[in-house]
Write a structure and sequence with these properties.
heterodimer; A: elongated; B: about 0% strand
């Protein structure tokens, strides 16, 4: 292929219409970019969470804080009984339903 | 990322262990394991160990009497129901007697319960006793309100 033939070839090819799948391809890329943009907020959050643990001292401090939170909650958390006063009163109130329970 | 997971697991485990240990230590007296219904006295009224031990002793003494009264309430209620069914629209002497018996048992229950409340209040400080009686006496005075309490 000499130069003039090659020039003709290029001219011919550049005149070819864009491929039929080009809009489809563009749409795919647009969707990929949109998904990436959507995912970015939780990636940022995760990165923010992970960042302190990259330094062992900061990570250990976070663990210590959760342990202290556990100690504090263990002291102040209410009794598992939904209503401790009702439970107490139920135990000292003479009532027929108690008798039914005892008879069962 | 790996380090983050290690810290995360350590944090969660640390929290669970710290919470469970503190809770079991804070709950303290062994008698609350056998009489968990007294937890309100300790947690809400802040009875100390000595006061709680005395209250528990009174509670233990009172319980058999309470059970006897419960059985009597059930008995008189059944008598009233039987008499009312047999009365066929009239206030028969049997029904009247059954209602009188029920009222007597009711009064006996109130006397027993109020007496127990006063005895228990006597082991507390004046402030604790005041709060205790304020929270419990209304139910002893009006025993039917006890059903409302349970419904809540």
């Amino acid at each position: 292929m000499n130069d003039s033939e090659f020039d003709n070839f290029l001219r011919r090819e550049s005149a070819v219409k864009p491929l039929a799948e080009a809009p489809f391809r563009r749409a795919v890329w647009e969707r990929i970019e949109a998904e990436s943009a959507k995912a970015s907020w939780y990636e940022a959050l995760l990165a923010r969470l992970i960042r302190p643990t990259a330094r062992p001292a900061a990570g250990a401090a976070c663990v210590l804080l959760t342990i202290l939170a556990g100690v504090w909650l263990g002291r102040v958390a209410p009794s598992p009984a939904a209503d401790a006063r009702a439970t107490y009163l139920a135990s000292i109130t003479p009532a027929a339903d108690h008798a039914l329970l005892h008879h069962r | 990322m790996n380090r983050f997971i290690v810290f995360l697991i350590a944090g969660v485990l640390g929290f669970i262990v710290a919470f469970s240990l503190t809770r079991s230590i804070h709950r303290a007296p062994a008698l609350l394991n056998t009489m968990p219904e007294l937890e309100w006295l300790r947690n809400e009224l802040k009875l100390d160990d000595a006061q709680l031990a005395k209250a528990a002793e009174l509670h233990k003494t009172y319980l058999p009497r309470c059970e006897t009264l419960c059985a009597r309430i059930l008995e008189v209620r059944q008598t009233v129901e039987a008499a009312a069914t047999g009365a066929r629209g009239k206030l028969t002497p049997e029904l009247t007697a059954a209602l009188d018996a029920q009222a007597r048992v009711h009064v006996e229950c109130q006397k027993a319960m109020i007496g127990h409340l006063y005895e228990t209040a006597a082991v507390m400080t004046p402030e604790q006793a005041e709060r205790y009686l304020k929270a419990t006496l209304p139910y002893a005075i009006n025993l039917s309100s006890y059903q409302n309490l349970r419904a809540h």
